[in-house]
Design goal:
The complex is a heterodimer of chains A (383) and B (120). Chain A has 8 helices and 19 strands. Chain A is an alpha+beta fold. In chain A, helix 2 packs across helix 7. The N and C termini of chain A lie far apart (50 Å). Chain B is globular, with a radius of gyration of 13 Å. Chain B has 4 helices and 9 strands; from the N terminus they run E-E-E-H-E-E-E-E-E-H-H-E-H. Classes of the chains: A alpha+beta (383), B alpha+beta (120).
């Protein structure tokens, strides 16, 4: 059997030494050397996160501050709405929102989180898209604001039902936060920018902290017996069960937000009859797809056998059909479900719940069922 | 007679049949297994051909036929409970039995000491 060896010569996060001290298995991801798993293993890290709390190092993610040149944050919000089909203007101070940059064809250039921090906007973007996003923001917003990529910061994600209990011992104000709130809090003596959000479907927090203070905070969090370190492997299986998109796999420049079933992130104000309808790249395509439906659609796929179906598998309408109708974009074993889970794109006619399809795995056709996402209900603290 | 391959398979050779499995090192590297696909009994493999598939949460890996031969028995208990490969890779976690096609291929397999040296 073939076993991949680890590689080096990559960028490291501020927690690199801690990962090695915890015997993490490191691997390259988006130009960084990151922990794929710890000795506990992907399966148990995943289950531990859903049962208690997992600590993830997501410092590879791009952190970008947009600061107004003239002190007017509304101008930045207005400018961002030229790039992003969401409501940035109504985003209140202390709140965060999921969004995406679109291109002229309506495709997704990147997905991101936007937080309103009072005097600036704080964006979290994908590591692989950071440089492109920075250039995109500068080209559009330079006259209005300073685009500052925050280089010397770590990003920790504490995810799971015990996350609040763990953090509230270090910062009492945590308890007052709801899903998608953002606060500046002092945790373990360090000033942190905390959002109540994540990428696992669980309640949880993402903590932006100065690189120099990150290991101290991580060690303090890990001292709590509810917290186990969790790697990118568990992060991927958790977000797949939660039906969340991975940029470059489930969404990309050739998929629109409507095709990706992400129109929930496009509020009415930016749609056809909204007060600020359109005005973002690809608006004609995207608004048309909202009216008439897209040609293809991202759906959940539940294999009917125990065979995991991985990204890249072709989808067929019939077991004997020769022409594929779609492709799996994410897939694997869902530890919380105890069985395989996948998602992919199919023509709209096949996107109905319960539609029976076939995925090709190692030359054989495996029956799969179109299903609603997420596979595991989200457990965000909305109230 | 216990033999190994550099691809992390072990073979227990008894007469003209070889029991095949993956090593302790392999199961550690793969992590918790969640799916096993075994070959059909009666199927013949050339040495080095993919004969079985093991999957962890994050990836699928192939298990190769370490020598040429015909499958005479498979271990369905690891299909029902893939974790058996993790807990007992050299025993109850065996994969399949091959009727040896060419005994000269056994000479090119390595013994336990050589395998351990290979792992470093």
């Amino acid at each position: 059997m073939a076993i991949n060896a680890s590689q080096s010569g990559l960028k490291r996060t501020p927690l690199h030494d801690l990962h090695l001290a915890m015997d993490a298995r490191m691997a390259p991801f988006a130009g960084y050397e990151l922990p794929i798993q710890y000795p506990l293993g992907v399966l148990k890290e995943h289950l531990h996160t859903r049962a208690a709390a997992g600590l993830f190092d997501v410092s590879h993610m791009g952190q970008i501050a947009l600061r107004p040149r003239q002190g007017n944050l509304a101008d930045i919000a207005f400018g961002l709405e030229r790039l992003i089909p969401t409501d940035v203007i109504a985003l209140a101070a202390g709140r965060q929102r999921y969004a995406f940059f679109t291109n002229a064809d309506g495709g997704i250039l990147d997905d991101l989180m936007i937080a309103h921090c009072g005097d600036h906007l704080f964006l979290v973007v994908n590591a692989s898209r950071r440089a492109a996003d920075e250039a995109h923001l500068r080209a559009a917003l330079s006259p209005i604001c300073a685009v500052e990529v925050l280089e010397n910061r770590a990003l920790l994600a504490l995810q799971g039902p015990a996350a609040e209990d763990v953090l509230v011992r270090l910062a009492a104000d945590i308890a007052a936060m709801r899903f998608m709130d953002v606060r500046v809090l002092t945790i373990a003596g360090s000033e942190c920018l905390v959002t109540r959000s994540g990428y696992t479907g669980e309640d949880g927090f993402e903590i932006s902290i100065a690189a120099a203070d990150a290991e101290k905070l991580a060690r303090e969090l890990l001292e709590n017996p509810s917290v186990a370190p969790a790697g990118l492997g568990a992060r991927d299986s958790l977000r797949t069960e939660a039906g969340l998109c991975l940029y470059g796999s489930d969404i990309a420049e050739n998929t629109t937000p409507v095709e990706a079933a992400l129109e929930w992130a496009m509020p009415k104000v930016r749609r056809r009859t909204g007060a600020r309808s359109g005005g973002f790249p690809g608006a004609e395509v995207i608004l048309q797809q909202l009216d008439t439906g897209p040609a293809k659609r991202r759906v959940g796929l539940r294999p009917r056998t125990r065979t995991p179906i991985r990204a890249g598998s072709l989808l067929f309408a019939e077991a004997s059909a020769s022409d594929p109708i779609g492709t799996v974009t994410s897939g694997g074993f869902g530890p919380s479900l105890g069985g395989p889970v996948a998602m992919g794109y199919v023509p709209l006619a096949f996107a109905a719940h319960d539609a029976g399809l076939f995925a090709q795995v190692r030359g054989t056709r495996v029956p799969v069922e179109v299903t609603d996402l997420p596979f595991v209900p989200h457990r965000y603290k909305r109230t | 007679m216990l033999k190994f391959t550099p691809e992390h398979e072990w073979l227990r050779i008894d007469g003209d049949v070889a029991v095949v499995g993956i090593t302790q090192h392999a199961q550690e590297r793969l992590g918790d297994l969640v799916f096993v696909e075994l070959p059909e009994t009666g199927k013949s493999f050339e040495r080095g051909a993919p004969a079985a598939v093991v999957e962890s949460v994050k990836a699928a890996s192939e298990v190769y036929a370490p020598i040429s031969g015909q499958v005479v028995e498979t271990n369905q208990s690891i299909v029902t409970d893939p974790a058996l490969v993790n807990s007992d890779p050299m025993g109850n976690g065996w994969f399949f039995k091959l009727k040896i096609a060419d005994r000269s291929e056994i000479d090119s397999l390595i013994d336990e000491n050589a395998y351990k040296t290979l792992l470093g």
